[in-house]
Every structure is written in structure tokens, then in C-alpha cells.
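Sequence, please.
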């Protein structure tokens, strides 16, 4: 659905679909706009201090809006404030590591019942590297 896409990535038919959807749900439109605002903050090249100021203002705006769909996210922001805003120091995230860990978790679930440890590691290797060996 177009609701999950960034505004800049929307095709004309996606924009039309969103406009129709938002006509039925002004709350969803507000949530979409707030998400887009936060995305813009993270895409801008700002100092950590400036970014923190912008994010705090965004958080205030979210709380003022009365929307509760961001509550868990706001709590996470508060709890991991320094770690999250450190992104603006070198513009690096832990996305690769998080994705890799997720792949391993899925693989572990798929390999449930394998009792031979060597087979587990073969499966991990095949899933992470093996397909490149056969692709040409």
C-alpha cells in the first residue's frame, strides 16, 4: 500500500489512492505526515545537537496531536536517545547487523529439528553465501 511508501517514491496512482484513503481518515493522514517529517529529519545532514532539537520538536508535535500510534516509538526514542541520535555523528546505523541477526533467527526457525551441528552451519553458509556461488 502507498501508505508505507515515502512521499517522494509515490507514483501518480499511489498519490490518488492515498488521497482517497485520507479523505476517509484524517487521523491516518496526520500520522503519515508526522512520519514523513521524521524521515526528513533523518535524511538531512545536521549536527547531532541540531537533530536532537528537531526530533524533540517533532516529539512535542506528536504528543500534541493526540495520536497514540507513536507511543511505543516515542518511548523507544526516550529510552535510547543517545544511541539513536548518535546516528547524526557519522550517519551510520546498525541496520546491517539487525538485518543479519533477523536472517539468522529465521534460518534457526527453519532448521528446527536439525540435530547435526555441521548441517546447521552448512545451512547457514548456503543461505548467506552459497547462492552467490551458483549465480552467474
Amino acid at each position: 500500500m502507498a501508505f508505507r511508501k515515502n512521499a517522494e517514491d509515490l507514483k501518480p496512482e499511489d498519490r490518488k489512492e492515498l488521497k482517497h484513503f485520507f479523505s476517509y481518515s484524517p487521523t491516518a493522514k496526520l500520522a503519515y505526515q508526522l512520519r514523513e517529517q521524521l524521515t526528513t529529519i533523518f535524511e538531512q545532514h545536521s549536527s547531532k545537537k541540531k537533530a536532537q532539537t528537531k526530533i524533540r520538536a517533532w516529539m512535542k508535535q506528536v504528543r500534541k496531536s493526540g495520536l497514540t500510534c507513536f507511543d511505543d516509538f516515542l518511548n523507544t526514542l526516550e529510552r535510547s536517545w543517545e544511541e539513536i541520535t548518535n546516528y547524526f555523528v557519522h550517519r551510520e546505523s546498525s541496520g546491517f547487523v539487525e538485518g543479519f541477526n533477523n536472517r539468522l533467527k529465521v534460518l534457526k526457525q527453519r532448521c528446527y529439528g536439525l540435530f547435526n551441528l555441521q548441517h546447521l552451519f552448512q545451512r547457514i553458509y548456503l543461505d548467506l553465501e552459497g547462492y552467490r556461488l551458483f549465480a552467474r
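The first helix runs from residue 12 to 24.
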